[in-house]
Amino acid sequence: MSPTAFKAPGDAHANRWKALVFIALAQLMVVLDTTIVNIALPSAQQDLGISDGDRQWVVTAYALAFGGLLLFGGRVSDLWGRKRAFVIGLVGFAAASALGGAATTGAAMFGARALQGAFGALLAPAALSLLAVMFMDGKERAKAFGIFGAIAGGGSAVGFILGGVLTEYMDWRWTFFVNIPFAIVAATGAYFVVREPESGRNRSPLDIPGVVLSTLGLVSLVYGFTRAESDGWSDTTTISLFVASAVLLLAFVITEAKVEAPLLPLRVVMDRNRGGVYLSLGIAVIATFGSFLFLTYFLQVVKGYSPVESGFSFLPMVAGMMVGSTQIGTRLGARVPARFLMGPGFLVSAVGMLLLARLEVGSSYASTVLPALVLLGLGMGTALPPAMSLPTLGIEPGDAGVASAMINTSQQVGGAIGTALLNTIAASATTSYVKDHIADVATKPQLVQLQGVVHGYANALWFGVGVLLIATLIALTLVNRNPGSEGVEVEVAVPVVAHGDTGHPLRKGARMVHPAPKAPGPPRLPE
Q1: What is the DSSP string of 35-79?
Q2: Per-residue pLDDT for the chain (527 aa), expressed as one digit of tens each?
Q3: What is the DSSP secondary structure assignment for residue 2, as one 8-state letter?
Q4: Beta strands 511-514 and 5-7: pairing type?
Q5: What is the largest CA-CA distance in the chain?
Q6: Cα(434)–Cα(441) distance, rounded to whole angstroms?
Q7: C-alpha R_g of the chain
Q8: Cα-based angle 464, 467, 468 (whole degrees, multiple of 5)
């Protein structure tokens, strides 16, 4: 028997921290795009002659392509290699952004947004899985994912600021064109700096039935919640979409359990820690997405802030996010079990949401909104780094792409649910309030309407508090792995057992986990 050869993936190349800069820049571009276009939508709608009934497709086309293709994008990055998928995703996203900025019709805009979503679905899981295979040391991994988590969480709020500035002082088209320099810098840097372990590819044949079923199932689910927001939960099309989604996703699970090379190996989601992260993070996002939307409307419609002013009003949340991610999540990530960062993080966010639930028409920014934003940012900033790191910790390299894609999928589905569900709750509460104060409508209609709107926001935010408490409970109950106790994963090369032999469990290329060495560097065998 030839000696066992060890190759420690944790021995990453010296440029990994430079690579993190370009990966984080790409992630910032993708996250910015989820909110920056929303600020520019009214101006774009007017210039392109998009009807009120069709304007939702500027957002929906992106959400459907992104959410529906994430698992496929993750599997493609495992197949092609993460660096290649990352660079292709960046180039495609930049080209789609250029088409969106140059659009002269609504149809051209919708097509560009769908292309953005498709390339984003390739880019996002490739970026996250690159971090997973480049940073294996516990402390370095915690720091890298802390930075990545801060950008992922704070990027949406920064999008409000940048979108407001570009729309107000330049032109709405720059909310698309701004992606091009981001992409060029990130793609160029990645091409020269990023290097991934060559052994991490998953070259199994592509699971075509799984791709079709997962894509159609996720598209039906996301579109179902989008329809529910605009047309109501009892709408026939809405119900049909939910039923179709349930049937397709059930068929997907059955298919994945039977095929030899599944798109999403069920072992990825059945692990209690990964499953706990996916579930708790998706539920937490339900609350946070709604709070962003309500606060934007509260500041602009009720308090009269300009788009730029409302954008800058989110800066305290970004600051809280940075502190939570880089100071708490990074410093404790390698020493504290993930549940003791995620659970308390979600709980702190729930306290911030509780403050927002006290909103009234006369509430001031300094006394109510500011402290709430700081707590929301601090809590989510603490929870996001372990939530993004843990699902790829100790996973087989060939599964890193789909495991990363599931993180994005849980956030995307959670965001779709949150937007639709919380908007429905707010609208219902507003209608009830106006009916209950119908006597005052004749004398002070504008005030009653504003009070009703804020009352609706407050009711939805109370629901968000409960959602975050559920996320806290799930994280504390299901997530029990301590990243600091993980060993170094090594690649083992042993002779292939001949056919008909005793069925030795090891084969060439099998993977084992050995205890982490005290001294840095790959472990060595005796001569």
Answers
A1: HHHHHHHHHHHHHHT--TTTTTHHHHHHHHHHHHHHHHHHHHHHH
A2: 333 333 444 444 568 888 888 998 898 888 888 778 877 887 888 899 988 767 778 888 888 888 889 889 988 888 888 899 999 999 999 999 999 999 999 999 999 999 999 999 999 889 888 888 788 777 788 788 888 877 776 777 778 788 878 877 888 899 999 999 999 999 999 888 888 766 667 777 888 999 999 999 998 998 888 888 778 888 999 999 999 999 999 999 999 999 988 988 898 888 999 999 999 999 999 888 777 778 878 888 888 888 788 778 888 988 898 898 888 877 787 788 889 999 999 999 999 999 999 988 889 999 999 999 999 999 998 998 888 888 888 777 778 888 888 988 888 888 888 878 888 888 889 888 888 887 766 677 788 888 898 999 999 999 999 999 999 999 999 998 765 444 444 333 333 333 334 333 333 344 444 444 444 444 444 43
A3: P
A4: unpaired
A5: 93
A6: 8
A7: 24
A8: 90
User: What is the DSSP pairing of strand 511-514 with strand 488-493?
Assistant: antiparallel
115 class by beta-carbon count within 10 Å (0-12 exposed, 13-18 middle, 19+ buried) = buried
The token pair that represents 377 in the structure block: 């940012």
Cβ 379 vs Cβ 349: under 8 Å: yes
Distances (CA, A) of 175 to 43, 62, 390: 11, 15, 33
Q: From CA 34, how far away is CA 293, in angstroms rounded?
A: 12
> CA-to-CA distance for 200 and 191, rounded, in angstroms?
18
CA distance 144 to 334: 11
Please say whether the beta carbons of 506 and 305 come within 8 A.
no
Cross-strand partners of 493: 5
Q: What are 226's strand-pairing partners?
A: none
Residue of 418, 444, 384 whose CA lies nearest to 226:
418
